Amino acid sequence: MHGVFFYLQQIKALLRISFKPYCLLFLSVLIVLTGCRESETKKQKGLPNIILLITDDQGYGDLGFHGNTVIQTPTLDSLAFNSTRLTHFYVSPVCAPTRSSLMTGRYSLRTGVFDTYNGGAIMSDQETTIAEYLKQAGYRTGIFGKWHLGDTYPYRPQDQGFDISWVHAGGGIGQPGDYYENFVKGDSSYFNPVLEFNGIKTETHGYCSDVFTDLAIEFIQENGETPFFAYISYNAPHTPLQVPEDYLQLYDTVNMLPDLFPSSGSDMAHMTDRDIESARKVYAMVTNIDDNISRIWKTVADKGIAGNTLIIFITDNGPQQRRYNGGLRNRKGSVYEGGIRVPSFWHWPGTLDPGDREFISAHIDVLPTLLDICGLQVNTRNPVDGISLLPVLKGENGDNIKRELAHYWHRGYLEPYHNIAYRSGTYKLVAHGDYMMKNSDFELYDILSDPNEEMDISNSSAILVDSLRNDFDHWYGEIMESDHLNIQPIHIGTNFQDPVTLGRNDTKGASAKQWMSDSGMGYWDVMVHESGLYDIEVRFFKPVEVPGTTSIRFGTVQRTVATNIQDNLIIFKGVELKEGPCIAEAWHQYRGKIYAPILMEVSKK
Predict the structure, then answer these.
(1) What is the pTM of this model?
(2) Torsion angle of C-alpha atoms 526, 530, 532, 537, degrees rounded to 10
(3) What does the pLDDT look like over 60-104, one tens digit per residue?
(4) Could you give the domains of the chain?
């Protein structure tokens, strides 16, 4: 009977008819009743299976359950209805920091991650991930989709505890860090992506979200008695906004207009035609994800393991584009609520009761919660910043303790007070300035009474502003001394990965922030493991149409060749590199103009 919902979902997917609330309630009752029966008759003994679902740039308002009257998300709405819902769940303002905190239970800065590119999205190999903990406990582990915490050994998912790894490179499909197979495809990069299967480039067929789901389902179906951890990390609805046409046709721009401007949502009144078209594509991408989650949920039901499978759904930050966001202020990249507050649904039939939990929680709490569920201890080498939410999820601790959380992000290492917030209980201090800010320039909000951050009460709460600023300063001073907040070099010359790609996503330096430009000159921190001869390929964004010279430099080893070709690939054969750390660079020069490469590929001879 548990499968009834899923078969109806498939009919709905064909007919494209949204479920009404009373239909959702009826189906939800069926799920609860059959889920309880299944938990009594089919529940496996021992550790639960864990499915962790995360989407990319799907905001708090990109769900029907959160008041969006346009978007079609019946599966996610039903999942929310039947889940324990953490209604005040927070992540980082951007994706790589969120993912590092999710994997480790620690603030991203402790892990070496401080940004999405410019060398700031490589997580230290000395961190202990969820996958490593669960693997040690006997789990079979798999990741499907976006990793964004390092593309080279020893930072890859397969180096960090995942038995099965199907991921795209860089920060996203079609971005410079994913050049070879997808950047050159332009507006079709989300279709038939070339992924890395445990480090081996592999062609796939289909739309990216469908492909990741297919691979995850295969992983779940192949699993026997061993508990599994499936980390299904969709890269949608992140840009580029590419989606199958049949999903896009679900959202007619004219019919969307009346509902795109609800009374709640400060951004809505400023939507342009471009914003509306972007919303249309995002909603189509989310509906595709919704259908794929339906397939996963059905697989779990058909396999008879729903009673012993914990399904978690979250998103990685707020929406990138302007659209309905449940009334929350601002979007991705911001420390206001619209950039950091996201859905968090925990579905475990027979163990967790559906309902809201208003406890302040965050991405750093996921790992300690899962360890608590599995009876595992935290590695004392890397103490976590989060806490176990298991008592909260079970309804044993519904009161909000005075939870303190720090929120931060800007391009580069954290500075006071660039786009930071500090939460203590219901109060939230916000700053958008520099290290010389005066207390009078800070903002203060009572999130309990003002969740949309419309009433700055800093002028009437000077003592509280000063206290919270001091708390942030103490936190900042301590976290900037973290062991892993240092250089994470790219390793070449090992037996674990050859060749090694030095991609634009990991270039450092102020100019390298122009990551989509051939003038974005930067460098890579590199560790050469073995002295010897190496072949080095230098690839540019587009053919080098002017004569000149192309140079490479690894520490003190520099080689230059004259080029008078219309090509974007220059090859250096048999370059002798010395063992040890160094800075690597490459560039093309013509009459004083410098052209930066998109990548270098280094092979040991």
Answers:
(1) 0.92
(2) -30
(3) 999 999 999 999 999 999 999 999 999 999 999 999 999 999 999
(4) 3-393 (3.40.720.10), 404-479 (3.30.1120.10), 490-604 (2.60.120.260)
